[in-house]
Amino acid sequence: GAVVSQHPSRVICKSGTSVKIECRSLDFQATTMFWYRQFPKKSLMLMATSNEGSKATYEQGVEKDKFLINHASLTLSTLTVTSAHPEDSSFYICSARDSGPGGGYTFGSGTRLTVV
Amino acid sequence: AQSVTQPDIHITVSEGASLELRCNYSYGATPYLFWYVQSPGQGLQLLLKYFSGDTLVQGIKGFEAEFKRSQSSFNLRKPSVHWSDAAEYFCAVGEYGNKLVFGAGTILRVKS
Fold first, then answer.
1. Is B72 helix (H, G, I), strand (E, B) or coil?
2. Is the pLDDT of residue B35 over 80?
3. A26 confidence band (pLDDT: 50, 70, 90)
4. Residue B57 and residue B67: Cα distance in Å, rounded?
5. How far apart are CA B56 and CA B74, in angstroms?
6. Which residues lie closer than 8 Å to B28 by C-beta, 6 or more apart?
7. DSSP A102
8. Residues 6+ apart with CB under 8 A from B96
9. What percent of chain A lies above the pLDDT cut of 90?
10. What confidence category does residue B24 fall into, taking pLDDT thresholds of 50, 70 and 90?
């Protein structure tokens, strides 16, 4: 079945630095990927929709300049948290839409970001 | 606007007992409905999905869900729960190909 690889699984960074998270579709092409953020004991909140070859579509309230999304190929989308602060600490999960028969949405394993 | 309600934040069941997790949705058109499971610190795994057709959907790990349009519900069921089913379960609704809207999740605890 469809597999989405996300890494790193965990990252700790200092305040003010930037962190890049990668999301790869391993055995299918994903023209659309989604980035979610999950706060402790909370549900997933969509941050942005990433479209291959075009600008990402951000949800209301999400800072575009802080959360940079690049979807340069059909198998890779990246989320860069720029000038990270402790309040950016969270669990970030990507999802790719599988365009195959009966396809749905496959999720990566998530990235636990801790900003110290 | 789409929305999903999972009324139960926590549910505890005994191993071997039956399980039903509730999900109600609000959506203007025919919804695409999903149930995902998440173990701590992990991503989401698809249990089952409903797009059209038979309203009783079979999924992995012995789970099933029934779409009831009249009740705007898509409840998840399992006849006999195993200790390994302890996790958090999310119901989601969306238009195919577009973003999903998730419920708040239900944490399932299984007692032996």
1. coil
2. yes
3. very high
4. 8
5. 9
6. B2
7. T
8. B32, B51
9. 69
10. very high
The reply to whether B49 touches chain A by the CB within 8 Å rule is yes
Q: What is residue B28's DSSP assignment?
A: S
Q: Give the closest residue to B69 by CA, choosing from B102, B28, B37, B21.
A: B28
Alpha-carbon distance B45 to nearest alpha carbon in chain A (angstroms): 7
| Single-letter amino acid code for the residue at B61 | K
Report the SS3 class of residue A85.
coil
What is the token pair recorded at B39?
Answer: 């173990």
> pLDDT by residue (tens digit) across B79-106?
999 999 999 999 999 876 678 889 999 9
Looking at residue A31, what is its pLDDT? 83
* pLDDT for B38: 93
Which of A32, A42, A93 shows the shortest C-beta gap to B43? A93
pLDDT in tens, A73-112: 889 999 999 999 999 999 999 999 876 555 578 899 999 9
**Which of A10, A43, A111 is most worth mutating to test chain B (most B CB atoms within 10 A of its CB)?**
A43
Name residues whose C-beta falls within 8 Å of residue A48's C-beta, 6 or more positions apart in sequence: A34, A35, A56, A57, A58, A59, A62, A67, A69
Identify the residue whose tokens are 């006999």: B80
Computed from CA positions of residues A62, A94, B64, B29, in that sequence, does the dihedral angle turn out positive or negative? positive
Chain B residue nearest residue A35, CA to CA: B99
CA dist B60 and A69 (Å) reads 33
Q: Taking Cα atoms as reference points, which of A110, A90, A80 lies closest to residue A42?
A: A90
Taking the CA of residue B10 and the nearest CA in chain A, the distance in Å comes to: 11
Per the document, the length of chain B is 112
